[in-house]
């Protein structure tokens, strides 16, 4: 798909990987819909517009089915369409299974998995009608191999993988692709808070012996959005950690 003047909706794009994805698409000439639970600052909107593209901010909770529909509708009304949907928003709430409450399990499932369903379902009607579109879901290597203390997160991200493959089969006849990107350890605000010993232990699990950058993930997402003959795939961006 040619990205110039296409409209890209990125959930959870106020910081971290989502923000990196927004910048990458803007550099490629796409218009951007920034999203978060709180309104995005005018400074960030201006930073995206500096690439010569349009940029709007849509605020809302993706785990709320009605709110998801309102956000897609708002983006469509302001830009005319949503050509590419990036389901990036996600949370963690780590705890050993024996100590995890049902509420802590549900909170992660609601954002990471149900939120992906909500946004995808709401955008599909327009994509099916125009017979084109790309959906890219952010999963995680944890969804492939599991991790101690992350049963809720791993379950949600494994669910995203199954969801991605099923959606890909359903929408392929209409020229729509659906893929997933599975990051490994990426340098973000969250990993910056880890102590040096923990970082060293994590890096030793990676064949390339370093954390990835948000740009590494963003490049993979842009690549999948541009390629009309790749669908139903899970692209790992993990320095070779899971191979």
Please provide a written account of the structure.
It is a single chain. Helices cover 47% and strands 15% of the residues. By secondary structure, it is α/β, with parallel strands linked by helices. The protein has one domain (7-237): Rossmann fold (3-Layer(aba) Sandwich), CATH 3.40.50.720. The chain is globular.
Q: Which key terms come to mind for this protein?
A:
243 residues, alpha/beta, Rossmann fold, 7-stranded parallel β-sheet, globular
In short:
This protein is α/β, with parallel strands linked by helices and 243 residues long. The protein has a single domain (7-237), classed as Rossmann fold. It has helices spanning 16-27, 42-49, 65-79, 102-130, 142-145, 151-171, 189-192, 196-203, 214-226, and strands at residues 7-10, 31-36, 55-59, 84-87, 133-138, 176-183, 234-237.
Roughly how much helix do the residues carry, as a percent range? 40-55%
Largest sheet: spatial strand order: 3-2-1-4-5-6-7
Q: What low-confidence regions span 5 or more consecutive residues with pLDDT below 50?
A: none
| CATH H level, superfamily name | NAD(P)-binding Rossmann-like Domain
Rg value = 17 Å
């Amino acid at each position: 798909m040619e990205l110039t003047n296409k409209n890209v909706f990125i959930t959870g794009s106020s910081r971290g990987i989502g923000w990196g994805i927004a910048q990458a698409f803007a550099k490629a000439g796409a218009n951007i819909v920034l999203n978060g639970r709180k309104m995005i600052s005018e400074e960030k909107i201006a930073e995206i517009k500096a690439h010569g593209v349009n940029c709007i901010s849509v605020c809302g909770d993706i785990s709320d089915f009605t709110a998801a529909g309102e956000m897609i509708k708002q983006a469509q009304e302001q830009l005319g369409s949503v050509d590419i949907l990036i389901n990036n928003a996600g949370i963690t709430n780590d705890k050993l299974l024996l100590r995890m409450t049902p509420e802590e399990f549900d909170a992660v499932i609601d954002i990471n998995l149900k939120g992906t369903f909500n946004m995808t379902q709401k955008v599909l009607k327009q994509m099916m009608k125009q017979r084109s579109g790309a959906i890219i879901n952010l999963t995680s290597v944890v969804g492939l191999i599991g991790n101690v203390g992350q049963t809720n997160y791993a379950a949600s991200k494994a669910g995203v993988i199954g969801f991605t493959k099923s959606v890909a089969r359903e929408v392929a006849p209409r020229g729509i692709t659906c893929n997933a990107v599975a990051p490994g350890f990426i340098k973000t605000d969250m990993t910056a808070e880890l102590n040096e010993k923990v970082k060293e232990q994590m890096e030793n699990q990676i064949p390339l012996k370093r954390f990835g950058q948000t740009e590494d993930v963003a490049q993979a997402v842009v690549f999948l959005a541009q390629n009309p003959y790749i669908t139903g795939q899970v692209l790992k961006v993990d320095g070779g950690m899971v191979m």
